[in-house]
Amino acid sequence: MDVFVDVGHRRKGLAGEMVRFAMAHPDYREVYQWLLATHDAHGVYEKLGFKPLDHPERWMMIRHEKTR
Prior knowledge:
- This protein is mostly helical.
- The protein has one domain.
- The chain contains 2 helices and no strands.
């Protein structure tokens, strides 16, 4: 679920390439909606067609902290 680029490898286009690869993969051809969250890389994902949610007030979430 979580994918990230290590700090030492950022700004090399890796995040965009990983998302582009996943979205083009034949196993995910039937996926009709992709969502992601980013703290500071909005421009990276906008280039791939992502945009802010049309109606963010309709979305809800629950997050359980990871246990190790």
